[in-house]
Amino acid sequence: MSTNLRNLGREVLGPTRYQRLSKLKAAVQYGLFASPLVRLVSLLPKRQYVQVRENLKRIERLDYHSGDVKLNVETLEHVGRLRSCAKEPGTVRWIEAHVRPGDVFYDIGANVGAYTLVAFRHTHGRSSIVAFEPAFATFATLCENLATNQCGGTVIPLNVALTEQTGVLTFNFSDTTSGAALHAVGEPISQDGESFTPVYAQPVLAYRLDDLIEQMDLPSPNHIKIDVDGAEPSILRGAERTLRSGNVRSLLIEANDTLPSRDEIVGIMRDYGYSVSERINALTMTEFSYYLFERSHQGS
To answer: Which letter, b or e, does each residue of 198-207 get, where b requires 16 or more Cβ atoms within 10 Å of its Cβ?
Structure first.
């Protein structure tokens, strides 16, 4: 399918429905081959079945050309994550241009850790990275990927949601598969502004970023990536003290250009002393852009 047709499909269906349709298509394509094999394996005694499952685990290379990054591949979502650099070349350029050895990088909405690992590899493991991912299965894969790439104590993975309210909140899953996205904290509202019926909802630990840094004595960030499918304004409101501190030099934030939340993000950041230095068009979603914020010369 051409890029134009994919973009048209997203515009007509919206990101949430388009993702589900794409997953269905992939499941049908792979299922034609995999179903007989899956049925055969399922007939094995449980010990042999588990042994086969363990030995079928696969590790593939991320499409990062400036360093060797490996990802565990166990779901169709993981297959898509292998092309994270081609999907978001602007994110990779920003990391390479701004994150230096000795810096502290926060990856908010890390998913399985593709960009966390790009930052780790780019700085040769000499930066401090905190990766936030609240979805349980995806967080497990994130931790596996950190171990596979021998990140050791350089990366701190945190299974918490960031928001403007510290406490226990409801996390609404669009899909519980590892690597899936388009979830929502609090109300089940998708990134295209529409309500959805979650396939599963569970309480999760949620923090204001300001509270988390203070209570857990985390290193203050110099660079922050935020890609959380619509929760960006809430996260920014919970990070006022951090963003006003002067330590944060740049942020890359995904925003839906068709929704009021985009202007809300820009307004919050302007109030905190930041301005947009670059707008990067999303390659796969025409209604989305990545906004690079840097401290204004006159910023507080």
So the answer is: beeeeebebb
- Taking the C-alpha atoms of residue 300 and residue 291, their distance in angstroms, rounded to an integer, is 20
Tell whether 266 is covered by a domain: yes
Same domain, 106 and 40: no
Residue 36 lies in domain = 1-56
Element (H, E) at 95: helix 89-98
The identity of residue 1, as a single letter, is: M
**pLDDT tens figures, 44-91:** 888 887 887 777 789 999 999 999 999 999 999 999 999 999 999 999
Residue 162's CB: how many other CB atoms inside 10 A?
26
Q: Are residues 52 and 91 part of one domain?
A: no
The span from the CA of 286 to the CA of 100, in Å, is 31
How many separate domains does the chain show?
2
Question: Which residues partner with 207 through β-bridges?
Answer: 162
